């Protein structure tokens, strides 16, 4: 891979996943060993870029392990509803956000409930879910309902019933003023970070229209390269494709910029297994119909073809 002015140029003969495996190898061999918030410990580099071509229905799904793209798709559709409670995810058998509310519940009540029991209660008991299943004003809330305040006299402010829908504004902007350099949305609401279970990792998205194609940069401040990345890069591509479809554009390129990019020290087995495998194949992504709005996609609207990954590799998630 050549590097020109900080732009990684992936040669067309190289598999799109090779840059990911190279970065994984580099971090595992040369990363700074650091103590992190979770106490697990990581090896990390600061600042990394990868580029993925989205032309001709390409989708950046890792092929050296199976990535559960439907799980990631359900999560993205959940973001777009503005929901921040894990209940609707758990109802769809998506477990990736359960560990944070569960951890909080155990710490605050001292109860030794296991994950399955906790999820069962979240589903069966609406009041329990409202009390214990909410992640605070994370991604979805900020994306489609960023709070807005208006003066109410005497130095007081009233919170408007409807916040700012950044996704709707983005799509209007892309349609009406494609050449703009301000096509951005972000989950990083500084005033509300302390209420979130986790501050956003995939925190800023910027879009760019040229030659009938929609490209995007994702800036991810913190990246769990062994677990989170596979989801994050697929989800970002999914988002580009949905937005492109809504704006009658083709998908162009997805540029991923990572800040603190790390491998957890308890991911040795995953790293060694994955680095021993060779990427292969080029899955295709299809959107089967065009809903009348970005907010009306359903899981059945998407299909992945030609995806023949190597077996799943499980690894513990650091909470
Ligand atoms: N340490 C850490 N890594 C993350 O990737 C991460 C967080 N924390 N906290 C918030 C969210 C939750 N996300 C997660 C959480 C778990 C998996 C995970 O366990 N994935 C497994 C199985 C997926 C499944 O059950 O379908 C995997 O092998 O990809 C992935 C992303 C991404 N984020
Ligand atoms: O979409 C996501 C969400 C989270 N992560 C990872 C990155 C870190 O390992 C943790 C978050 O911990 P912080 O201390 O808040 O950075 O979760 C991810 O890779 N992708």
From TrEMBL:
Pfam family, one: Thymidylat_synt
Catalysed reactions, semicolon-separated: dUMP + (6R)-5,10-methylene-5,6,7,8-tetrahydrofolate = 7,8-dihydrofolate + dTMP
Subcellular localization, as worded in the UniProt entry: Cytoplasm
Domain Thymidylate synthase/dCMP hydroxymethylase: 18-319
Pathway(s) of this molecule: Pyrimidine metabolism; dTTP biosynthesis
Active site: residue positions: 201 (nucleophile), 201
InterPro entries: Thymidate_synth/dCMP_Mease (IPR045097), Thymidate_synth/dCMP_Mease_dom (IPR023451), Thymidate_synth/dCMP_Mease_sf (IPR036926), Thymidylate_synthase (IPR000398), Thymidylate_synthase_AS (IPR020940)
UniProt binding sites for (6R)-5,10-methylene-5,6,7,8-tetrahydrofolate: 224, 318
Gene Ontology MF terms in the entry: thymidylate synthase activity
Binding site residues for dUMP: 37, 181-182, 221-224, 232, 262-264
UniProt-listed Enzyme Commission number(s): 2.1.1.45
Keyword Cytoplasm on entry: yes
Keywords associated with the record: Cytoplasm, Methyltransferase, Nucleotide biosynthesis, Transferase
Record's keyword annotation contains Transferase: yes
Function: Catalyzes the reductive methylation of 2'-deoxyuridine-5'-monophosphate (dUMP) to 2'-deoxythymidine-5'-monophosphate (dTMP) while utilizing 5,10-methylenetetrahydrofolate (mTHF) as the methyl donor and reductant in the reaction, yielding dihydrofolate (DHF) as a by-product. This enzymatic reaction provides an intracellular de novo source of dTMP, an essential precursor for DNA biosynthesis.
Protein family per UniProt: Belongs to the thymidylate synthase family. Bacterial-type ThyA subfamily.
HAMAP family: Thymidy_synth_bact (MF_00008)
Subunit structure: Homodimer.
Protein known as: Thymidylate synthase
């Amino acid at each position: 891979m050549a590097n020109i002015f900080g732009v990684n140029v992936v040669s067309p003969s190289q598999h799109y996943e090779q840059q990911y495996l190279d970065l994984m190898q580099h971090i595992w061999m040369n990363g700074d060993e650091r103590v992190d918030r979770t106490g697990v410990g990581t090896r990390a580099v600061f600042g990394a870029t990868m580029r993925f071509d989205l032309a001709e229905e390409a989708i950046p799904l890792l092929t050296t392990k199976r990535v559960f793209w439907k799980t990631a798709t359900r999560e993205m559709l959940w973001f777009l509803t503005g929901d921040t409670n894990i209940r609707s995810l758990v109802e769809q058998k998506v477990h990736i956000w359960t560990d944070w509310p569960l951890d909080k519940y155990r710490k605050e009540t001292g109860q030794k409930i296991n994950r399955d029991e906790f999820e069962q209660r979240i589903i069966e008991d609406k009041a329990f879910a409202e009390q214990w299943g909410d992640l605070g004003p994370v991604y979805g809330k900020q994306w489609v309902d960023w709070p807005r305040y208006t003066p109410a006299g005497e130095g007081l402010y009233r919170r408007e019933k409807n916040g700012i829908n950044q996704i709707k504004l983005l799509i209007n902007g892309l349609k009406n003023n494609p050449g703009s350099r301000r096509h951005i949305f972000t989950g990083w609401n500084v005033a509300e970070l302390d209420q979130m279970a986790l501050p956003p990792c995939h925190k800023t998205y910027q879009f760019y229209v040229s030659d009938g194609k929609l490209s995007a940069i994702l800036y991810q401040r913190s990246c769990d390269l062994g677990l989170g990345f596979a989801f994050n890069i697929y989800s970002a591509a999914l988002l580009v494709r949905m937005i492109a479809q809504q704006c009658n554009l083709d998908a162009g390129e997805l540029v991923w910029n990572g800040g603190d990019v790390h491998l957890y020290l308890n991911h040795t087995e995953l790293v060694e297994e994955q680095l021993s495998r060779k990427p292969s194949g080029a899955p295709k992504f299809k959107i089967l119909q065009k809903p009348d709005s970005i907010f009306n996609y359903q899981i059945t609207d998407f299909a992945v073809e030609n995806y023949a990954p190597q077996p799943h590799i499980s690894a513990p998630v650091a909470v």
